[in-house]
Amino acid sequence: MALISLAGIERVFHLGESSVHALARIDLQIEAGEYVAVVGPSGSGKSTLLNLLGLLDQPTSGTYHLEGRDVTTLSPDEQAAVRSRRIGFVFQSFHLVPRLTAAENIALPMMLAGMPASVRERRVQQALRNFGLDSRGHHRPDELSGGQRQRVAIARATIMQPAALLADEPTGNLDRATGDEVIHLLEGLNASGVTLIIVTHDAKLAARARRQITMEDGRVKADSVQAGADNPPQMPVQGGATDE
Amino acid sequence: MNNTQPGTMRRMDVFRFARAAATAYPLRTLLSILAMAIGVASVVLLTALGDGARRYVVAQFSSLGSHLVIVLPGRSATGGFNPANGMTTTPRDLTVDDAAALLRAPAIQRVAPLIVGTSEISANGRVREVVAVGSTASFMPIRNYELAQGKFLPDEDWRGSSPVAVIGTTIQKDIFANQAAVGKLIRLGDRRLRVIGVLKSTGQGMGMNTDELVIVPVGLAQALFDSNNLFRIMIQARGRDQIEAAKTQVTAIIKVRHGGEEDVTVITQDAVLATFDKLLGALTAAVAGIAAISLLVAGVLVMNVMLVAVTQRRAEIGLMKALGARGNTLRQIFLTEAAMLSLAGAVAGYLLGQLGAWGLRWAFPVFPAYAPAWAVVAALATALATGLVFGLLPAQRAARLDPVDALMRH
After folding, report:
1. Which ipTM value was assigned to this complex?
2. Structural domain containing residue B160
3. Is the overall model pTM greater than 0.95, yes or no?
4. A160 at the B interface (CB within 8 A)?
């Protein structure tokens, strides 16, 4: 059974009189553990697709099965629960809450899910170690480097052990070296079993993924799987590497 | 009712999160707290003023004496307490004999006739104008007067006119300076009198200021002013439950004595007290109502502040939704924040108001400016309620925010 199964998905935006088909008749299967890059020019619908996959947006028509369950018919609260437990988001601009420390930002999904503070504390400490942020837990986002911020964001996205990690231009705001480091981190997570879906228009970055989906005008233009692709490195930050 | 439902943010976490959000924007938070504080403080302070006035008047009336019934010459149209009572012309005078007749009434304990006039006092080489009161020995217990020195008027026949006087402390100071007054001779009008007592100072009170009085036997006052007309008859009933009976009996006795005409006004202290109590109670409520408008204004301000907060935190709200927050959780967070602002403002305003009331009492010790409990409770409850009601709209807006839109605007 596919992790993600889209059938006849359409997303139409109404802008005054005209309507824009952001997504048109998308049929897509993504298996658990896949590493997928979604590429395409701006306005091709790749971000809309990602929002749809993350249940932040609803399709105009079509069905979306996540882990075999039709999630398009769920109530908003049920969809929130699915987002909470099964999906992790990584954004280009990190989206950390500025007044919360790194540890609190990482704990946020657990807090929203109503998990007890003791469990949160244990998992956050583990995550800080895993992502090489041991000494940064009490720092606020504005006291962290870009790479550290994105690592906090990734730690937050994975703290609930989601099935899929959705990353929208995760390296867009980072320099080359830091960006590579973040990609290695994401690939490490993918190697440990998390399905990784990255939206990017960086061809080099897309080339690293085993499967590339190319979008154009709201349609899937190409869907290719690289045979015998690279062997992603193990979790690169396990040794406590930091980027400064 | 507790946090057993999975996937729901814990109440303590909602509280902490909202608190952190509020303190992250100190100026905004402080301003809305201030607005709420001013609202609550004005309710507390203004009701303290209103209720203080009520207490003051009630206390002053009570200090007139207990179980008091007062007979005034002349019939007032309404029969109630009326300032015009003092000015109506008297169809038939009230006399000392009328007063003496009232002693027969079973409900009456004491009667004191009262003649009032101005005269000139001279002694010790000094002269001044005074208000002279002619009465009897009963006057002191009826009015709860106390003596600083000497004794009060002798218990003699009401027609008697012992050449004695009891003076107030101001008179004593003005005429005798620091010397003892008791035993000294004074001249009042054309009479030579001996001072037999000095009243204890009562300070400025309602009605007559006893510090500036000279009290002489009623017979002497009649001769002095060459008049039989009584200004008042002060009556003490045998008890609180006897006041109405005393009133009825007084009216009946005077009517018989005045040829069947009911030409006097009988007022009871209780009736006057109740009137003032009601009047000033209503005034306090009205003032509280006016002050409550500022609470409403504060509520609108809290709403504005929270709407700004929702706009400022769009990206954060979008993020929280992406992280699995339900609409209800967001609603709770923003409502909690609004409630916190209101509550902090209410508590600050309460303290501010009490401080103001304390300042009033400190500046005017005779004025019992205490905010009534009902007003304090109402102010705090209204503050919290307005905060919550006006917090609803922003909270609703936060809960309904489209996450994609909210995240993209960042």
Report:
1. 0.88
2. 92-262
3. no
4. yes
